[in-house]
Write a structure and sequence with these properties.
The protein contains seven helices and eleven strands. The termini are far apart. With 257 residues, the protein is an alpha/beta fold.
């Protein structure tokens, strides 16, 4: 039987952390929460569930998760965010995985289903949003400023698990827009650090292409007014990302001149 450490990072997640822990407690051999100094009831809720709770000043997404993963003691790590939860079907898939033998290079992916203002969105480019979230301890680490990704210590064999990772992500349209623009700003800075260039044509057509892809090709038009708003916001966030990159490149050029 494989053992599984569930690892969560938190900051002021009292509204969602209980649901997250409830969804994983049946398949977890240990639950580790690394909290970046919450000021709400997050810690109290976590301690009610008897999780291993640690406080750590914010290090950035990747480094905070890497620190949390280092605390894990089990054979495998399941990384889950506080605003996520496992569906019943995904729990059953994980239980089956735990009972079977696997190679030390095998990692496990799952589809993530996003909830927008109480509605599950299967279009607009937001689904299946497949993520690798389970891997053997020591086989991978997180990297990246935003939309942190896993870097493997070897060539992984990816196995898809049945069921959805439920993402209770956006409670209001304003919250969705704020988060997309926050990610866009971080994305622009990440592009700058990676020496990515941009020009006026790119800045003009990338948002338009994103809107066409998400609204027409990815079926956002079938989601009614909600789909229009989501796809429009994603396109505007793309424009903001490239505007941030352009401003940073321009500032650097002026300093050199």
């Amino acid at each position: 039987m494989n053992t599984l450490s569930v690892v969560i990072i938190t900051y002021n997640e009292e509204a969602k952390i209980g649901r997250c822990i409830e969804s994983v407690k049946s398949i977890a051999d240990e639950i580790i929460v690394v909290d970046s100094e919450s000021t709400d009831g997050t810690e109290a809720i976590c301690r009610l569930y008897g999780v291993k709770f640690h406080r750590q000043s914010w290090l950035g997404y990747a480094e905070q998760k890497n620190l949390a993963d280092d605390l894990a003691q089990c054979d495998y790590i399941l990384s889950i965010d506080a605003d996520e939860a496992l569906s019943d079907k995904l729990c059953r898939s994980i239980s089956t995985f735990k009972s079977e033998p696997h190679g030390n290079d095998e990692v496990f992916s799952m589809n993530r289903l996003n909830n927008y203002c109480g509605r599950w969105i299967r279009r607009c480019g937001l689904y299946p949003d497949t993520k690798v979230r389970i891997w053997p301890k020591g086989f991978a680490h997180w990297k990246g400023l935003i939309h942190e990704t896993l870097e493997y210590h070897g060539t992984p064999k990816v196995t898809k698990l049945a069921g959805n990772l439920l993402h209770y992500s956006f409670d209001t349209p304003e919250g969705f827009e704020k988060q997309m623009f926050h990610f866009a700003e971080l994305g622009g800075r990440s592009y700058f650090e990676r020496n990515k260039k941009t020009g006026p044509i790119h800045r003009l057509f990338s948002p338009s292409f994103d809107f066409f892809r998400n609204y027409i090709i990815k079926g956002g038009c079938l989601e009614g007014r909600t789909g229009w708003f989501i796809c429009r916001t994603l396109a505007r966030a793309t424009r903001h990302k490239y505007n941030i990159l352009h401003a940073l490149l321009k500032e650097t050029k002026l300093k050199k001149d």
